[in-house]
Design brief:
- With 394 residues, the chain is an alpha/beta fold.
- It has two domains: 3-228, UDP-N-acetylmuramoyl-L-alanine:D-glutamate ligase, CATH 3.40.1190; 239-392, Mur ligase, C-terminal domain (Protein-Tyrosine Phosphatase, Chain A), CATH 3.90.190.20.
- The protein has 14 helices and 16 strands.
- It has an eight-stranded mixed beta sheet, with helices on both faces. The chain has a six-stranded mixed beta sheet with strand order 9-10-14-11-12-13, sandwiched between helices.
- α11 (292-302) links the parallel β11 (277-281) and β12 (305-308).
- The longest helix has 20 residues, at 3-22.
- The protein is globular and about 55 Å long.
Amino acid sequence: MNIQKLKNIYHLFQAISANVFYGFPSKKLKVIGVTGTDGKTTTTHLIYHILKSTGKKASMISTVYAQIGKKQYDTGFHVTTPSAFTVQKLIFEAYKAGSEFFVLELTSHRLEQNQLWGIKFEIGVLTNITHEHLDYHGTYEEYCKAKLKLLSNSRVAVVNEDDESYKIVQSSRQKGGQAPFKVQSYNSKFKGLEKFLELTKFNRYNYAAAYTVCKELEIEGKNIFKAMKTFQLPKGRWDLVYDKDFKVMIDFAHTSNAFLQLLPEVRKKYLDKTGRIIHVFGAAGLRDKSKRYSMGKISATYSDVIILTEEDYRIENLYKICEQIGNGIKSVHKSYTIIENRLDAIKKAISIALLGDIVVLTGKAHEKSLCRGKIEYPWDEKEAVEKIIKSLIK
């Protein structure tokens, strides 16, 4: 038995203990789980917003924060789904606060580790499954299996039929695997979303997923759309933080698929024939190395100027990370610059921005720290941008 399996047994014991200690609180609520490589944070927040806007009592845990009743909690550095005891505690607190619904953003790691044992989901949402976290799961197939654990423990599965994962779900059902009893699908041509003309293509999926969930919860369609009109994207998602002679956007995109969804939309929405995309990004250390080449290739395909920098390199060599990304950039005959310090990299990008350009900063967004070595240093991307612009533009 390998070390990871032993750890998973330990985590299972922790999850069982947490459920017993808090009295299996998820059984007293309708829990909606949201997982996927991309889009899960926005979808989680949107479902929560619709529930609240239509008079439902709801709580939520997302990558950005946890909202339990009227109280907001920080979930920590680089955390999407907290540990078993924290999750159960927050669900218990939500029950005490009078919540009927609980929206929970989930990672494949927590699913694989058994840390969510004991939670019976009313609805499980799978936004997509793309190339990510293979450092942990080993293969794409194993990554898919981890995600499907949510669906197999849900009364209803809400799945993106435009994504490759939809075929995997259907195949699992046909083979008699542990698939949910009911599957509801959605796609980018979801009827009714034409009302939201400003929606980007990738956010159409998030809105379609949230609509499907809330209809399943018996909320009227007209009330769902009314709630959607007042929704604001979570911090660090398509976040235009400066918009004058040039623009600066912050986004959490940190996978090749996220780049593929983000960068072409940015060009289409904000740039004319002369405007440039100046892309500043890196890749996290001790994480899936195999995605770095494709991240570089996609950035180079859609960006005009690329500055590579730190993004929680941890104990990896920053320049080797950048070199691996750079191999993808060079594959489409583009060049790049490496500026180690993220603040300096952003300062350089803003200093070279011309009239009509857009600086796109990806990978950090809402996160409050930068990991260098084994130390977490305070970081606020939006605050950094504001200080740089104030010093450069007088």
